[in-house]
Structure formats: structure tokens, C-alpha cells
Write a structure and sequence with these properties.
The chain is built from 13 helices and 10 strands. It is α/β, with parallel strands linked by helices. Helix 2 (about 40-50) crosses helix 10 and helix 11 (about 250-260) crosses helix 12 (about 265-275).
Length: about 325
């Protein structure tokens, strides 16, 4: 009996130690999303060159990359604690998440890619916004593309209720457009180019309707609990930008390979992206405009102050 009790006690100790070790291992991991579209060159370079891994190595922290392309899904993952850093999110998604009580903050800028987002009609189909009435449109909800669709419809006196809007991530929306299962798709970057090459038509682009702003974001708990890891992320982000500036051709070629496009297309995407490492007052003003638009069009229920969701270090 004594031996049995000792064995059970040792087993319990072993199990406790195992759980503690597992928890310790989990605590030594940084979970970050990898979003290469529309043409997020800083993230591409950071991952391809292992810049973040090098910055976190002295801390004994392992990097785990997650391919989550939707800003809304990244926000959900951060709320669930399965993602620490949103490698690239649009500010629309961040504002919508904050409006629902999800404590996410912008920690750095990425780009202002006004030229890479578009509503594209299928070959031989809809060619203008007015003709979208009653049609099937596929794309990611809770994103700047969603905002673009609502803005384009509003400019023609319509609302989102005037179309059949189906939630799909960009690759699936592109596939649905190519197969003719939808009348239009909300696309970005290389998918816009590929759709046009297949005979599609740009119904509307972000130009004049929406100013997309892409950012690096993190949960408030991660920011508070791991300032050293956040600093490592920002160093890697800035080193990637510096490397791109010094090795333009090589960086564009790297982006072309990741996106599966030729060099001329990659150069066009680079030009459209308007990269930035930090936001400025004009961006905050634009976020306020976005907020007013989303509240007026039922995309958000609660008001948020852009200054409350941008870390001071993320501003010029």
C-alpha cells in the first residue's frame, strides 16, 4: 500500500512537472500571422530572411507563423489568445474589432495601398457599380474591401442590401469569379491582375472611395506582458524595410516569387503599395473618416478614438 501511494505521488508530481514544462514551452513562442497579400514586402522579407527569428533568439523565443489572411480572423485569433501579433491588418478591421471590445492596438505602419484593392466583375458580366444590383458579390467581410464595396454602392445611392454579399477569403472569391459562380469579387493585388488577364473588368477601385491603411497590430495583453518581444518585432519590421530600400530589385523579385507574378507586375504592386513604417496625422484623420462612414452604414455599432488604438511609437 505504501509503495502504491508513493508511486501515485510520483506520478502526480511527474504529471504536474509535465504540464508546467508544456506551459513553459508555450510561453516561449511568439505567434504571428503571415499575410503576403496585397504586396506586404516587409513581412515577406522578414519571414524569408528569418529577421524576427534572429531578433527573438536571445530571448529564447520561437516564432510560429500562421497564414491568416483575413483581418477579422486575425482579430478573433488575438481575442482567443492564439495569436500575439497581426503581421498585417487593415485599420478597418482593427477599428471594427475595437468597437466590439476586442483590445487590439496598432504598433507600426505597413502601407497605404490605394491602387491594389478593387471590385472586379467576371468576364462578359457586370461592368459598373449600378449593374451590381441584385448580383452575387464575394469577398472578405470586416475588411477594407468590404468597406470599398459599401462605399461604391453608397456613391450610387445603394446599400449592401442591394447585392447578395457572400463571405469568402480572397483566394476563394477569385476562384469563384473565375468559375463564374459569382458576378463580382472583392480582390487585391495579384488577384486583380490575374482576373483582368482572364477577361475580368474593374468595376471600382479604392481610388477616390477609400484610403486603405495597413498596419502591424498586437493584443494589449501581449503589449503589456511582453514589451521585449514587441520591441523585437518592431526591430525586425524596421530592418526589413531598410533592407528593401537598399536591395530594391532583390526585394521585388522576392515578392514576385511569393505572389507568383512576374517582375513587371511586382514592380507595379510595389509602386501601388506606398509603404510606410509609421502613421501620421493624416492617417488618423482618415481613420476618423472611416469610422464615421462605417457607423453611418451599419458596419460598426460603437465609436472608437483612433488615438486610443495607436501606440505612440507607431506615429511619426
Amino acid at each position: 500500500m505504501i509503495l502504491k501511494k508513493m508511486a501515485m505521488a510520483l506520478l502526480a508530481v511527474g504529471m504536474t512537472a509535465g504540464v508546467a514544462a508544456a506551459a513553459g514551452d508555450a510561453d516561449k513562442v511568439l505567434n504571428i500571422s503571415y499575410v503576403k497579400s496585397p504586396f506586404n514586402l516587409q513581412s515577406i522579407v522578414m519571414k524569408r530572411q528569418g529577421l524576427l527569428e534572429k531578433e527573438l533568439e536571445p530571448l529564447g523565443v520561437k516564432v510560429v507563423w500562421h497564414e491568416i489572411t483575413s483581418g477579422a480572423q486575425q482579430a478573433q485569433a488575438m481575442a482567443a489568445g492564439s495569436l500575439d501579433v497581426g503581421g498585417v491588418m487593415n485599420t478597418t478591421s482593427i477599428q471594427m474589432a475595437r468597437g466590439e471590445g476586442n483590445p487590439i492596438k496598432i504598433v507600426a505602419g505597413v502601407s497605404r495601398p490605394t491602387g491594389v484593392f478593387a471590385i472586379v466583375g467576371k468576364k462578359g458580366g457586370v461592368a459598373d457599380v449600378k449593374s451590381l444590383k441584385g448580383k452575387i458579390v464575394a469577398g472578405p467581410k470586416g475588411t477594407v474591401l468590404h468597406q470599398l464595396l459599401v462605399a461604391a454602392l453608397a456613391a450610387e445611392g445603394m446599400s449592401i442590401d442591394d447585392v447578395q454579399f457572400i463571405q469568402m477569403d480572397i483566394p476563394k472569391a477569385f476562384a469563384a469569379l473565375e468559375s463564374g459562380r459569382v458576378d463580382a469579387a472583392l480582390l487585391s493585388a495579384n488577384t486583380v491582375v490575374n482576373a483582368l488577364n482572364s477577361g475580368g473588368t474593374v468595376i471600382a477601385s479604392a481610388e477616390g472611395l477609400v484610403v486603405p491603411k495597413l498596419a502591424v497590430a498586437a493584443s494589449e495583453s501581449f503589449i503589456a506582458e511582453h514589451p521585449d518581444r514587441l520591441a523585437a518585432v518592431l526591430r525586425a519590421h524596421d530592418k526589413a524595410a531598410a533592407w528593401i530600400a537598399e536591395h530594391h530589385d532583390e526585394a521585388v523579385a522576392m515578392g514576385a516569387e511569393e505572389q507568383g507574378v512576374d517582375i513587371p507586375t511586382a514592380e507595379k504592386l510595389f509602386e501601388w503599395s506606398h509603404f510606410t513604417q509609421r502613421f501620421n496625422q493624416a492617417d488618423l484623420d482618415s481613420m476618423n473618416d472611416d469610422l464615421a462612414f462605417m457607423l453611418d452604414n451599419g458596419m460598426m455599432r460603437n465609436r472608437v478614438d483612433p488615438r486610443d488604438i495607436v501606440l505612440p511609437g507607431a506615429l511619426e
